[in-house]
């Protein structure tokens, strides 16, 4: 892994829990400037360690990730007029409702990605020539079990993925399709079944899929990975990465 040479400015969409929160904590600790768009900023602040709650490199903005105006406002670089942030971590998702076998908003990811891409497409008056062309790296958290390029989950998981998780997976596929078809420099991250628990030293395996050209470069099939270790992997390999090897690629990560 190549280390990040300069501090970055990163927009977080969906940072109030899970993988996104883990990436945010690592990014704050590393000194990156972090902007978090939240419906209730106080909920995010309460989940951060005490030593990060008042950090100067954290800016919280109240708003909805489905609101193009709110997203566009947060995409603006805080110190470079007309420029955008360096990266976007997209980790929004719905609340699963076991009794109905669905999520509270079955299109939450698709709508969020559409809002992000619409905001990125807006003209930026006053931007210098170079800044006007530069768009942020978009890192979007998806899921295993939705690829069209062969099985990426254990056989035992197939019934659960195709029945219990049918609606959220349909939403993730729609979100992925929008991002892949865009002109953004994106990376999709597909963790295996997410678990709770602290960050660990367990080795994380990563498979590589070129989703745009529909080619599998390598496979990593496994059962689970924690949200904390997913966030740590994203920070170390995508936020801190400088060699570009994951640009327009999909990473399947698991223990």
TrEMBL record:
| Highest taxon of the lineage | Eukaryota
Q: Which residues form the NAD(P)-binding domain?
A: 14-238
GO MF terms on file?
A: biliverdin reductase [NAD(P)H] activity; riboflavin reductase (NADPH) activity
Stored Pfam families? NAD_binding_10
Kindly indicate where the leader peptide sits in this chain.
none
Query: Which PANTHER family is this protein grouped with?
Result: FLAVIN REDUCTASE (NADPH) (PTHR43355)
User: Which family, according to the similarity comment?
Assistant: Belongs to the avfA family.
Protein's name according to its UniProt entry:
NAD(P)-binding protein
Q: Which organism is it from?
A: Phialemonium atrogriseum
The organism's taxonomic lineage, starting at the top: Eukaryota, Fungi, Dikarya, Ascomycota, Pezizomycotina
